[in-house]
Each structure stands twice: as C-alpha cells, then as structure tokens.
Design goal:
436 residues, alpha+beta, six-stranded mixed beta sheet, 3 helices, 21 strands
Length: 436
C-alpha cells in the first residue's frame, strides 16, 4: 500500500512539474529596443493574453537604465535581484526597493556596438539565472534572456564619452565642442610655406607663423602671448624671453633689433612675426628652440592689454599694435598683468566687450615648441683679412716689379756711363799721340 501511494505521489509531482514547465514564457530572442531619451518598446509577443510588460529601458546620452519588475516572467512568481545581471553588472537599486534597476554605461556591462546605416546601436543582454528556492535543490522558474538595444543617430554627437573614434584628427585634441588646432611654423623668406631649411645666419630675420584652425567654430583671433628661446628642448638655462608681458615684443626694445609682428594680419586666425637671429653667448652649440604660448579670443571682441600683439619702433621709441589700437600697448613698459583702467573714446552704453571680459574656455590656449634652429656665424673679419692679404700681395708684387725696373735702368745708366768714359778716354789718348 505504501509503495502504491508512493507511485501515485510521484505521478502527481511529475504532472505538476510538466504543467509548471509548459507555463513558463520563452524569452530567447526577444528584444527591448529603446531610442535615445525615449522609453523602450517591448518587441515580443507575450505568451499570455494581457500579460504586463515587465522590462523597460531608458537610453540617455551616456548610459542605459533598465527597470525590471519582480514578476519578470509574468507568472506571479517573483525573481530575486541577485539572479539578475547584465554583462556582469548587477542591480544598482537599494536592497528592498522595487522594481529593480540596473544602470549600465553605454560602453560597459558587456555591451556591443555596431553601425547600421545612419544609426549607432548599443546592444545589452539581460540574463536571469534562477537560484534554488530557500536553499532547496529545486527551482520553479526557467532561465531567461532579454536583449536591450539603444539606438542613436550618427549625425548627432550624443556624448563625448560615449563615442571613442579610432581616428586622430589633424587639429589638436581638446575635449568638448571647442576643438582648436594651434600651430607654430618656421616659414620661408617670402611666407609662401614652411621653410625648407632650419639653418640661419646671424643678421637673418627668422619668419614664424602662429595660427589656429577653428573649423566649425565662430571666427577667432590668435595672439602670441609669450615666446622663450633656449639652447635645448628641455627649456634649460640660459633662456631668453623675446616676447612677454602679454604680447609685447621685448627683443626689439631691449636690443634695438628688427624683430616685430607683421602688420596688418593676413587673417584673424593667423599671426606672423619676425625674430632677428641670435646665438647664446659662451655656448659651443648653435641650436635654438623656441617655445611660444598662444591663445585666442573671439574675433568680434576688442583687443585689450591682456590680449594683444605689440611691436616696438626703436626709431620712434614707441609701441604699436598689430590690430591698430596702440592704447593697449601702453602697459608694455610696466606690467600688463595689472594694467591701469583701460578706456576708449566710446559711448559707455555701446562699448563692445573687451576680450578679457569674454569668458574663454581653458582649451583656448596652447604652448607649442619648434626647433632646433641652427645659427651659423659668418665673421666679416675673415673676409676683410683675406682682402687685406690679397692687397698686400698685390702691393708686394708691385714693389718687386718697380725694384726690377729701377735696377734695370740703373744698370743701363751704369753701362752707358762706362761706355762714355771709355770712348772719352780713347779719344783723349788719340789726341795725345797726334801731338807727339
């Protein structure tokens, strides 16, 4: 009797197990597709009529937020949050809080990305792996897999963190929207392009061009804020600051050189300047490295003592601005970091903003180095000495020639005198013989 009851119990248990298994929904291959900033749309047919949507997703510009109902399978059997994972990322909502929430970065938690035409698709996989019930060696639910997709239009920059392109742009890589490409180039003597040689001679003017590439940006004006020359690339001593004080060309004032900013500008985004070639005293090396600090402001902003480029005219002993307003150069003889009140003859109600009053992002400045430049010294004394030596040789040769002529003339005269004396002697002797 006991065996018979045991067999009936086994049949009943098997019957309930089969009913429970066939009652579970099949999630394999079903997807939750969400577009940016829009709720997800459940793209599968529920196994039961009227079963609620148990998984939703919200895609932002940097992450996907997945909300999961405790009744994930829709069979009135709640799941445990510890049984849910998405690419190794678990439930992030506090314990005891329902529904469950998983927040995953677009490029994390096992996501995959692919390009489908004009759309970028990030795909995630939500896994449900049931654990035994109350420590017993049985489970009452089946594993489930839900695929979640976040779709973005490729024509829009969703996030600077979400997209990591493999290409390196030509311009300097600065984060966010203000991607500016600064450059400092040694130019040829006619400014037609980069200099084919980096060797110069004392007395030459070295042409340098600073510029900024502001593609897809409103017009900008570039300034050479400061420049330092060093014999090595590591900015070691000695160092010579030939542009400083926020854009004052100090070299022309200190040494009376021909160094200057080229005026007028060829473009607001370009600044050309010339440096009178020099060498460092007492050093055997002839190399020079130039390091300049460049910055930009909006081209629509006025120049001011902090944003300017000024040259010094030694003949007139005065400063002049490349951009025409010489008043901004008045601080070059003192300190432009703390200039006196700066005024223009304009109506205060319509005064344009100064460049320093315009909030400039940190990416609107850059420090760039060029070099090495090699300075060759041509000594004029050597050529003069050679010339003098040649002249001395010519003088010496002329003197020898003159001495030769004088000697020859003297010899002829001596021979002539001897001949005259001889004939005179003969004649006198003949007359004496006749008288006898």
């Amino acid at each position: 009797m006991w065996c018979k009851d045991k067999g009936q119990i086994a049949v009943v248990l098997l019957f309930f197990f089969l009913c429970d298994a066939f009652a579970q929904p099949r999630f394999k291959g079903r997807k939750v597709i969400a577009k940016s900033q829009k709720p997800a749309v459940l793209q599968y047919v529920e196994p039961r009529v009227g079963a609620p949507q148990t998984v939703t997703a919200q895609c932002t510009d940097s992450e996907v937020i997945v909300t999961i109902s405790p009744d994930l399978l829709g069979i009135q059997k709640p799941v445990q949050p510890s049984d849910l994972s998405m690419g190794g990322c678990g439930v992030t909502s506090p314990a005891g809080v329902q529904p469950f929430v998983i927040e995953a970065p677009l490029q994390g938690c096992g996501s995959t990305v692919e390009m489908l035409g004009a759309v970028i698709v990030y795909t995630f996989t939500l896994d449900y792996n049931p654990s035994p019930v109350d420590g017993l060696p049985i489970v009452r639910t089946n594993p489930a897999v839900v695929q979640i997709e976040c779709q973005y239009n490729r024509l829009h920059n969703v996030s600077s963190n979400a997209l990591n392109p493999t290409w390196v742009p030509y311009t300097s890589t600065i984060s966010a929207e203000d991607i500016l490409g600064f450059s400092l180039v040694i130019m040829s003597s006619d400014w037609s392009g980069p200099s084919p040689s980096n060797t110069f001679f004392l007395g030459d003017l070295i042409n340098l061009q600073a510029s900024v590439d502001s593609t897809n940006h409103e017009p900008l004006r570039v300034f050479v804020d400061s420049c330092v020359a060093t014999p090595g690339s590591n900015a070691s001593a000695p160092a010579y600051t030939f542009i400083g004080n926020n854009g004052c060309f100090l070299d022309s004032q200190l040494t009376g050189s021909n160094s200057q900013f080229v005026s007028p500008r060829v473009a607001q985004s370009v600044m050309q300047f010339q440096l009178d070639a020099f060498r460092f005293y007492g050093l055997t090396t002839s190399s020079i490295f130039i390091t300049c600090h460049l910055k930009v402001t909006l081209a629509s902003a006025n120049v001011d003592p902090l944003n300017k480029d000024c040259s010094y005219n030694s003949a007139l002993s005065q400063w002049s601005s490349v951009d025409g307003d010489n008043a901004v150069c008045s601080c070059c003889d003192t300190s432009c970091a703390n200039p006196p009140p700066f005024r223009r003859a304009l109506c205060p109600k319509h005064r344009p903003r100064r460049a320093s009053e315009v909030s400039a992002p940190a990416g609107w400045k850059e420090t760039i180095s060029v070099g090495p430049l090699f300075l060759e010294q041509v000594s004029p004394l050597s050529s003069v000495s050679q010339s003098l030596s040649g002249q001395q040789d010519e003088v010496s040769a002329g003197s020898q020639f003159q001495d030769s002529i004088i000697g020859a003339v003297a010899g002829v005269l001596a021979v002539s005198c001897v001949a005259v004396l001889f004939f005179a002697y003969r004649k006198a002797k003949g007359i004496a013989n006749t008288k006898q």
